[in-house]
Amino acid sequence: MSKTVTLTDNTTGKSIELPIQEGSHGPNCLDVRTLYKELGYFTYDPGFMSTASCRSDVTFIDGDEGTLLYRGYPIEQLAEESTYLEVCYLLLNGDLPAADDLHDFSRIIKEHSMLHEAVRRFFDGFRHDAHPMAIMVGVVGALSAFYHDNVDVHNPEHRRIAAHRLISKMPTIAAWSYKYANGQPFMYPDNNLSYTANFLAMMFGVPSEPYQPNPVFVRALDLILILHADHEQNASTSTVRLSGSSEANPFAAISAGIASLWGPLHGGANEKVIRMLEEIVHSDKSVEDFVARAKDKNDSFRLMGFGHRVYKNYDPRAKIIRKMCHDLLAEMGDMGADNQPLFDVAMELERIAMEDDYFIERKLYPNVDFYSGIILRAMGIPLNMFTVIFALARTVGWISHWNEMMQDPESRIGRPRQLYTGYRSRDYTSIEER
Ligand code: SDX
């Protein structure tokens, strides 16, 4: 006998049994698929705060505990032991790779890292002051015009190739977006370097002299990529799933995800956090003044990098990045000197907010974006590239969820309903009568 919840409509006295869908971890779900047919109601849930859109094995978050698992592995262990490329294999395939599997996967990703030369000319259509995220949205979407040979979304091999192409080409597109905005020559991938070192070399290398990525920065960025690789059904992943549910081209669906991530309430927050910290550092106002503004409903100012739809505890990723931030600045010494004031203000902001009833009552804690920007800034990565780095990292999460959806027998085209509050039917009037 399956477990159910009885729902009674007190306006008609009619009752129905709604099945309970049980997961392996976290809250179970009330299956409301028969609700409209049996009781004539839609569910109403703006922002989907209490709605599960799908089944998934990819990532688990416990917002109260501050837990994050990629395919069951705690983020703390992956951050300590793994590499971003190994995490890509894990998210895509469901298990950690054996040595040979990782070697083969790494070789395949290296082999796809170049872009079609016509894609290179696509950059020329952008203004030089274009935000690199705008360039990413355009260029990734344009990839759907370059791969016609294998885009049958129901063919597992075609999906695998699309996943590999996206993971391997995102660093090249990201680095070239930076180079184009700076009027510098594009650097081609160097397959002698690791995935993350290769990205730094394409970003900061120049044809006129050799460039060796700083190994401390390579490790710090690899960790940032691991922490941003996936995060369940967040806004951009849900955008990829919804656009992909119509069987659209995967490159176009990922481009839609990049567009959603760009928003300041989502992936765009890391850029906003640094602007906020810089404003505080250079302001004659105190940190307490800024916290007071964040609490003031009449002031649009919010503490960027604080709060989360799911985490009602400290974001585990923020904990890891906070320590990494501290260690990196200590290791950099004078090199990181102009970042230390930002880190000091961030820790002061965190301390004050965590003692303030407004933040405590609303369970507002630092999220992944609160400290990540300080590390990227210390590495010399410009502000407008922060969300590009987030998009680079999240590509594997997006494509893993897209791939899972395309194999899910329950998957259907996403088509939510609405609570209509507009005019009932009315008759057209001629312009003379208006
Ligand atoms: C990411 O979904 C994911 O998993 C996303 C992400 C991922 O990896 O994919 O984790 C990445 O996007 C992290 C979030 C980055 N965004 C920011 O840091 C922007 C600042 N944070 C907020 O805008 C907000 O907290 C959100 C958008 C993150 C969450 O918004 P919710 O869940 O819709 O919560 P809400 O806006 O309804 O806020 C609840 C209350 C409100 O107060 P009341 O109206 O109840 O009095 O908390 C207040 C809000 O005003 N509040 C804040 C605040 N965040 C929420 N007040 C001051 N500063 C803030 N940052």
Helical content (DSSP H or I, runs of 4+): 40-55%
Q: Topology as H/E string?
A: EEEHEEEHHHHHHHHHHHHHHHHH
**Net shape:** globular
Rg, Cα atoms, Å: 24 Å
Which sequence of strands runs across the widest sheet? 1-2-3
CATH topology of the largest domain: Citrate Synthase, domain 1
Number of domains: 3
Regions with little confidence, pLDDT below 50 for 5+ residues: none
Straight-line distance between termini: 62 Å
Supply the CATH architecture of the largest domain. Answer: Orthogonal Bundle
Beta-strand percentage range:
5-15%
Determine the structural class based on helices, strands and strand pairing: mainly alpha
Largest sheet: 3 strands, antiparallel
Mean pLDDT: 95
CATH class of the largest domain: Mainly Alpha
Q: In the CATH hierarchy, what is the superfamily of the largest domain? A: Citrate Synthase, domain 1
Number of strands: 6
Q: What small molecules does the structure contain?
A: s-citryldethia Coenzyme A
Number of helices: 18
InterPro entries: Citrate_synth-like_lrg_a-sub, Citrate_synth-like_sm_a-sub, Citrate_synthase, Citrate_synthase_AS, Citrate_synthase_bac-typ, Citrate_synthase_sf, Citrate_synthase_typ-I
GO molecular function: citrate synthase activity
GO biological process, one term: tricarboxylic acid cycle
Family: Belongs to the citrate synthase family.
Walk me through the topology:
Blueprint lengths: L3 E5 L6 E7 L7 E2 L4 H5 L19 E4 L4 E4 L2 E2 H7 L2 H10 L5 H13 L5 H6 L9 H11 L13 H26 L13 H10 L10 H13 L7 H10 L5 H12 L7 H13 L5 H9 L20 H17 L7 H15 L2 H5 L6 H11 L7 H22 L27
Antiparallel strand pairs: 1-2, 2-3, 4-5, 5-6
Helix pairs in contact: 3-18, 4-7, 6-7, 6-11, 7-8, 7-18, 9-14, 9-17, 9-18, 10-11, 10-18, 11-18, 12-15, 12-17, 14-17
The structure holds s-citryldethia Coenzyme A (SDX).
